[in-house]
Structures are given as C-alpha cells and as structure tokens.
Amino acid sequence: MHSTLLVSLLGQCLLFGILLIGYATAQLVEPGQVTPVTGVSSSIGVIDGVIEMFSFVQSHFPTTEKKASTLRVAVGINVDAVSHTSGGDAPDVRLYNEEGALLGKNTQAGDIGGGSYKDIIVSQEDKQQPTYALLTGNKDAVCIAYLSQVWPDGQPYAWTGTWGRECGVPWYYSGIVLEGKVTDCTWLDKDNSVTDVTAFQVHFPEFNEQGGPHHNDKPGTEYYCDNTPVLNFYHNEDPIGPFRWAGNKSPAPAKRRSVQPPRNGTSSAVFANHLTRSNHTAHSATKLCESDSARGPDLVSFAEGKFCDMETRTVLPLCDTVDGKAQECFDTAAQDVRVVKVVAKRSVAVLASRKSYTKVRSWF
Q1: Of 186, 138, 141, residue with least CA distance to 164
Q2: How far, in Å, CA of 302 to CA of 318, rounded?
Q3: What pLDDT digit, counting tens, does each position of 48-70 carry?
Q4: Parallel, antiparallel, or unpaired for β 298-301 and 274-278?
Q5: pTM higher than 0.85
Q6: Parallel, antiparallel, or unpaired: how do β-strands 117-123 and 92-96 relate?
Q7: Distance CA 161, CA 278 (A)
Q8: What is the rounded CA–CA span in Å between residue 183 and residue 74?
Q9: CA-to-CA distance for 92 and 74, rounded, in angstroms?
Q10: Are 46 and 168 in contact (CB under 8 A)?
Q11: How far is residue 189's CA from residue 166's CA, in Å, rounded to a whole number?
Q12: How many CB atoms lie within 10 A of CB 7?
C-alpha cells in the first residue's frame, strides 16, 4: 500500500513539474509571437569556390508573428558612419510561396547601420510558407553579409553574402563572423553608385543543409550561380516577381556576366580616403585586388603583409618589409602609400607620398 501511495505521489509531482516547465516556457514568448526552432541551423555557403556550411544559432534569427514572416538583413561593418558605407537603406522585401504568389511585402523598413542588422516584418494574410524572397535595393547601397528568415510556423532559413563573390557580382569583406567563419558581403544598390545589382532573389529551402539543392543538373557552386530560381541577381531593373522552377527546368538559365562598373567609372571615387585595416587571415589583399567584381575601400592585410590599392588594383608590400632599392609600399604607421628607400639598417628615406586616408576602420 505504501509503495502504491509513493508511486502516486511521484506521478503527481512529475505532472506538476511538467506543467510548471510548460508555463515558464510560455512566459518567454510574447502573445502572438513565434520563435525559431531551437538549436543550430546550417546554411549552404561558399569560401574560395568550395561549398561550406555556415552555422546559425538561435540568436542569429529574429522572432516573428503568427501572421507574418520576419527577415533579418545583416550588413557589413561600415568604414564611415556618414555616407557611402556598407550600412545604408534597408532593401524592399517581397515574399512569395512556392507557386510564385505574392504573400506580403515591406517597402518601409528604414535604414541599417553598418555592422548591424534590421529585422523586417512582412505581414501575411495566411500562414503559407514564403519560400522565395525578393530584395530590391534603395538609394544608399548596402553590403549584405547574411539573411536569416523565420516563417510563420517557426521554421528558420538562412543565406550568406559569400555567394555574391562566387557568382561574380560586386562584393567586399564584411567583418561579420558567423560561428568562427568570416563572411563576405554582397552589394545591393538602386542608383549604381557601387553596384549595378538592383535586386536579387533567394529560394531559401535550397540553401538549407537538409533541403537542397532540389535538382542536381549541375555540380557544386554552379548549381547556385547558374539557376535563376535558386539565386538570381537583377541588373539595373526592378523585377515584379521571382523566377520559379518549371518542373525540373530553370526558366531562364543564368549566365555569369562581366561586371559592369558603377556610373562614376569605378567605386574608388565612392570610397576615396577610406581604408580598411584587417588582421583576419580570410581578408587577403591579393585576392581582393585580383577580383574584378570587388568593390570597396583600399585594404591593408596584416596577416598577409600586403596592401591592396583598389583604385589601381595594385598589390604593394608593407614598408617595414622592404629592403634596398626604392619602391612603393604602404606605411602602417603613417597610414599612407609612399615611395621609400632603405638607406641604412632600420633607416628609411621617404622619397614621395602618394595617398593618405581620413576614414580608417580596423578589424582585429
């Protein structure tokens, strides 16, 4: 009898504990809000032409509302807080279901500070899954490091800005880190001051580690860059809707195109007097200068010991590494490009100074 009573009491305590945990958990979420699925979600990205998985933890995702989806737009760290930075106007966001029907839009999201993010809420009349997202640029360009989206049912999806570089559209280093991996960012603009990419679409399920690609007609990164329903960059246009899969076929196979310079000729005028200093091994001055699609400030890479002049696409050594004959180099102390000659041990003669900076950002 005593054992029966003890089992009964234990059962009641267990039930009470479960109810208490459920109540406490419910208090963490405001009425009408939906939180993303807990744990780690992986997004298919790319680093130096190789497919890589980027981990997104719960803090990388926004909360959303029961009759809405929320898209987080994270942008690269800015060089200057006033103008022409990687922070700028938030893009217009339109969401579509798998059949291409518009579910909702938000064209009044405001601006985004460099190195920050904006959670853009898109109201939906129903709870259909917004598998396609179409982002359209506004007046001030932004360099998008990643997108993370939570559907009305709480499912989380994500995309990284590394794809712009891989697919040959204007990009720059972002300074944003995702669980130890440094991301690039993809430029989005309206007036072609930095890039001619005015809009792009993402089919989120195909960037999910568990979900895609949905079709296997092309290997590796080509699948993502060459199929318009998966990822498509629009140039100098304002699209009215996304490309969708037509059975197993892409409706208009994308072709990698030559990158068009901004209307001002090069982006160097936009970023005049701007310098990025970085100690990240992923931030190569050589690779930045060698990329025809790179847009942004000059870069000094301390990890590489090199400097990239984005105006001339010239890679220079750091002045403290030169020896002997006169040569052009970057002086890390003076923060300028100069011609120097080593005239004696530890003695440097400055023959000319060609370029200096007033806006400097350091990533260490």
Answers
A1: 186
A2: 9
A3: 999 999 999 999 999 888 889 99
A4: parallel
A5: no
A6: unpaired
A7: 19
A8: 11
A9: 14
A10: no
A11: 19
A12: 10
